[in-house]
Design brief:
Layout lengths: L2 H12 L5 H11 L3 E6 L7 H4 L7 E6 L5 E7 L7 H11 L6 E6 L6 E8 L7 E8 L6 H8 L3 H4 L8 H11 L3 H21 L6 H21 L6 E2 L2 E2 L3 H12 L5 H15 L4 H8 L5 H4 L14 H4 L7 H11 L14 E3 L5 H11 L8
Parallel strand pairs: 3-4, 6-9
Antiparallel strand pairs: 1-2, 2-3, 4-5, 5-6, 7-8
Helix pairs in contact: 1-2, 1-5, 8-15, 8-16
Amino acid sequence: MNQIELQGQVLGLLENFKGMEPLKKLFWSTLNYDQVNKSTSRRGWPDAASSVLADDPTLLAAGGAKGDFQILYSRLAKDRLSLADERIVTSRLLKDHPYGLFVFSDKTQTNWHFLNVKMAEPEEKRKLFRRVTVGPNEKMRTASQVIAQLDLESVSPNLFALSPLTIQERHDHAFDVEPVTEEFYRTYHSTFDTVKTLVRGFKQDERKHLFTQRLFNRLMFIAFIQKKGWLQFGGKQNSDYLAALWADYKKNGDKRMGFYHERLYNLFFHGLGAQDEVGVININRGGVFADVIGKVPYLNGGLFEEDDDDKDGGIKVPDEALQAILHDLFDRFNFTVTEATPLDVEVAVDPEMLGKVFEELVTGRHETGS
């Protein structure tokens, strides 16, 4: 099976990932690890580590000549994932399982973290935590790319000759965030050029560039805040608010007006940038804007202030341009609102990317720091 086919199989599993059966199928069948499925005791563990788990960890699967590389699953006692709890448990498990992948779920086994621990340079003696998130509110493309690389047959056709160090090195490589960052940069830049070409109504290229830049900045910001559950549409909080807005527009919207003018213009300037009480009341009390943008907070900042180009009715942003942003860019990557630290990184697009793409890909003014 080639890598594309394998990634498709992994993606299919991750998109319906609840309970133990998909996890077992993923490692026992799809990724070619040996089945173990044995409980490991917490006897002797410090209470700080033991108390955060709902039950004993499971040694789920193993790889290598002697089964020295191990897949360990732990179910947290809370109804949500906790990075702090995961670090405590992982540090304890590493004492007995130095080579492995650590899989965590919340209590209901709905949301998951696949956690790789890479040892920093020997002289530093530090552990680098890298994780991918799997769950019903996540985009699974990046996760499937990472996890598909863990297939043992792709490391070596002779599974019994693999050392735990060799398997660990493959895991360390698969969980490297840099390839995801670089792919996002490339896709962002390509999509930006496409959208800028499609936008109409400008005589000056520089003004067109700045308008497109602001559009991307605004939508990128929304892509992050929707993950926090701050935006509601259809009467419920939606972690993929933009997708819900687009789907409703395709079904019920005025196609002559277009997605930008019917939905995004009102979202930007009568919702997130509403500067008067009337605008806020119209949104949050079921007023005129509620049907087209839902319920959103007022954000006191300059990003959603309306300027002369925003007011110019001759400027057109066709649906084709917005589809490129929402589907060709946003749907391909998972966004996280958890900012990375030097020792803990989620393999996803994090809030730091807002500044990076603005500085390095859009303005081209990296040297001046503008």
